[in-house]
Design goal:
heterodimer; A: about 450 residues; mainly alpha; ABC transporter involved in vitamin B12 uptake, BtuC; two-stranded antiparallel ribbon; 4 strands; about 70% helix; B: alpha/beta; Rossmann fold; 6-stranded mixed β-sheet; 4-stranded antiparallel β-sheet
């Protein structure tokens, strides 16, 4: 396959540029490295808690700060809103916030698939609208599908849409920016047309029956008792997996986090889970009792968990990161680069479809007013605020979660303060810029200290 | 020991080797790109367990030669003999399957992936359909240890944080892990400082002492004389001299590279007759 590398017929020597120069003259790193020469020893990393924290500190200083800045930023924003409006941290508002943020989180995850591959998917906002329309129409008159068939149909439609976009990008070599921009415009038209054709759409609005499972996804709650049971089961599985994985690594003679770190991680997860369930199980009803975890929270959690495993623990995920950083290296390693790209666009569209499902459930209706353009931009913002890179190869579902939460918090907090839509857009813009700037500064420091 | 490079004697060139059967042999390899004659009747051989330097000025055909060996395209004429049998590679995968790995200047590493992930890229091991990180990490660690790569702090750090020499080490370890019999290295020291160059040259020596044949493409005569056992010199698409490094000196190599002949080197006669042909 000569076309793998360069087109034949070019007789030039193809002298490639030298390695990046900042790495070339690197003799300064030697002394510290020599301290760490223990080829046979199982890593220089940490056997005790103190040493582990020191290594961690060094990683943060060298630019691998991970999710730390965004978590810190989120806490600052939350404190700000709580000081401004004491209602902010009330159970009613927090649950409300989670329900709103779930759309941004899923949109961020959708965009993440494109960003990891160093592409962009501008169509996600209207794929959301398409997904919402399809699911609402499938379960309404005259189709009357059961809810699960409606969701399945929606997934098929949005995944196919992603496949079409991915094929245009990989087979015709049109940039993803252009293909998905066309997709955005096209789907806006399709959604308007769908509302026109559908006789049951009254004035361009299709409603979702409050009795349907789809409506209940966001608007109904798991009973408090069941919520606690689910939490305990999830935490037990997580704890067992974390301890077992560390033990397996240690048995293989590989470096593993010390037990204290594993326990600390489990404790943090437990506290987070307990607080979440506790807040949700406080009675937040104004007239009638209302308590329990909305179904949408475990739903989003499950989606993110599946994506985390897929991206972190499967070949497909590994190849996505590889292609995002160096498609040529991936090609030479025998990876079907274009096929993986198409799959990424399928996942992007499918996830946007799931966001559409949550959207339809949340509003209880779908209308032609859906502002897909804004949703697209929020999708990019959520992923970037969370820590994904527009240059490809970096970003995890966790980042979509954090970024989506930040947007949800800003949106919700400003609404509580009675600030207009104009103010919300401007505030989101500022948060986006600050997040990108912090990320860039931290990372640049990391590069120069290498 | 010099081998004649005249096209007429190409069939017999194998017998000139002092190391038994060569691992790889090019016989009368010719490659044209449209009107451009990139390689004309190039003959040389690569013995196992030795470092062969492929020297030549820009445009001499070094890259075309290594890409031909790597299977990127087939030669127009002549044949490539691998382990005693003529072979026809239909792409780099074929060459890799046969045991030929090429490390290009860009090293083909993914900066965002760690050392283990890079070394196993495209060949990941699975357990229960998920990546088997533990087993891959152990193998990667053993391979780096074999190569005496000791300056790396953790093999779980991203490749972006490595120095140029360390990145070369990872690329070489990747080749070793794939059980390559011939490793072709394209200008491995071109962008490196002094100590990093030292590190890579040591690595090349260790690779060869482990029985792997190495083709080292280099402009740098210091490197060539430091590390190579044999030298093959190309000029304007022709092989103008080859032989053990002891039969050359920097001046004669420069002569061959620039004019295609030298009054001081081992293949002066051959160089002359080639020009005459």
């Amino acid at each position: 396959m000569p076309d793998e590398f360069s087109s034949p017929g070019v007789p030039s020597e193809m002298e490639e540029p030298p390695l990046s120069t900042e790495l070339a003259e690197d003799e300064t790193a030697a002394p510290e490295d020599e301290l760490a020469i223990k080829a046979a020893a199982p890593e220089v990393l940490a056997d005790s808690l103190g040493e582990y924290l020191r290594v961690w500190g060094r990683r943060i200083r060298s630019g691998e700060s991970g999710a730390l800045p965004i978590v810190a930023g989120l806490i600052v924003i939350i404190i700000f809103f709580q000081v401004e409006r004491s209602k902010f941290l009330s159970a009613l508002n927090l649950v409300n916030l989670f329900q709103q943020a779930s759309i941004y989180i899923l949109l961020g995850a959708a965009q993440l698939f494109a960003l990891i591959l160093s592409e962009i998917d501008l169509s996600v906002g209207y794929v959301l609208a398409l997904g919402a329309f399809v699911v609402a129409e499938l379960i309404a008159n005259p189709v009357n599908f059961p809810w699960w068939l409606g969701i399945l149909g929606m997934i098929v439609v949005t995944a196919s849409w992603g496949y079409i976009q991915g094929s245009l990008i990989t087979r015709l070599h049109i940039p993803s920016f252009v293909v998905t921009l066309a997709g955005l415009l096209f789907l806006e038209g399709v959604v308007l047309e769908l509302a026109q054709i559908d006789k049951s759409a009254v004035g361009g609005v299709i409603s979702v029956q409050p009795t349907s499972v789809i409506y209940k996804l966001v608007n109904a709650n798991i009973s408090p008792g069941a919520s606690w049971v689910v939490l305990v089961v999830v935490l037990a599985i997580f704890a067992a997996a974390a301890i077992r994985s560390a033990a397996t690594r240690r048995a293989q003679g590989l470096s593993a986090p010390p037990l204290s770190i594993t326990l600390l991680t489990i404790a943090i997860a437990a506290i987070g889970g307990i607080v979440l369930v506790y807040v949700c199980t406080i009675n937040r009803g104004l007239l009638v009792p209302l308590k329990g975890v909305p179904y949408v929270i475990p739903f989003v959690g499950l989606v993110l968990f599946i994506y985390t495993v897929m991206l972190g623990r499967t070949r497909l995920g590994r190849y996505m990161y590889a292609i995002g950083a160096n498609p040529e290296a991936a090609r030479r390693a025998g990876i079907h680069v274009q096929r993986v790209r198409r799959i990424a666009f399928v996942f992007s569209a499918m996830t946007a479809g799931l966001a559409g499902l949550v959207y339809a459930s949340q509003l209880g209706s779908v209308s032609t007013d859906t502002d897909g353009g804004t949703y697209t931009l929020y999708a990019v913002a959520a992923a970037v605020i969370g820590g994904a890179s527009l240059f490809g190869g970096r970003g995890k579902p966790l980042h979509a979660l954090l970024g989506g939460l930040v947007i949800g918090v800003v949106y919700n907090g400003l609404a509580l303060m009675g600030i207009s839509a104009a103010g919300q857009f401007i505030a989101t813009a500022i948060v986006l810029l600050v997040a990108a700037a912090v990320d860039s500064l931290v990372r640049r420091r990391g590069e120069t200290t290498v | 020991m010099s081998t004649s490079n005249s096209p007429a004697t190409s069939e017999e060139s194998g017998r000139g080797s002092s190391n038994g059967a060569p691992l790889l042999e090019l016989r009368g390899v010719t490659k044209r790109f449209g009107p451009v004659q990139a390689l004309s009747r190039v003959n040389f051989e690569i013995p196992p367990g030795q470092v062969t330097a492929l020297a030549g000025d820009n445009g001499a055909g070094k890259s075309v030669t290594i890409k031909t060996i790597a299977g990127l395209w087939a030669p127009d004429e002549g044949e490539i003999v691998w382990e005693g049998k003529p072979v026809h590679f239909h792409g780099p995968r074929d060459a890799e399957a046969a045991g030929i790995t090429t490390i290009y200047q860009d090293l083909a590493l993914c900066d965002n992936l760690d050392i283990v992930q890079n070394m196993f890229l495209g060949h990941e091991r699975l357990k229960n359909r998920l990546l088997d990180e533990g087993s891959m990490e152990l193998t990667a660690k053993d391979t780096l240890k074999e190569l005496h790569v000791v300056t790396i702090r953790s093999i779980r750090q991203p490749v972006a944080s490595l120095s140029g020499g360390q990145r070369q080490s990872v690329a070489v370890a990747k080749a070793v892990m794939s059980k390559a019999k011939l490793v072709i290295m394209d200008e491995p020291t071109a962008a490196l400082g002094v100590s990093q160059t030292r590190m890579v040259l040591d690595l090349i020596k260790r690779l060869a002492s482990g029985g792997v044949a190495v083709i080292l493409v280099s402009h740098n005569l210091n490197d060539v004389f430091e590390v190579a056992d044999r030298v093959v010199i190309l000029q304007l698409g022709r092989m103008v001299a080859q032989g053990p490094v002891s039969e050359f000196d920097p001046a004669s190599v420069v002569d061959y590279m620039t004019t295609g002949r030298s009054s001081r080197g081992p293949s002066a006669q051959a160089g002359q007759s080639e020009r005459g042909a």
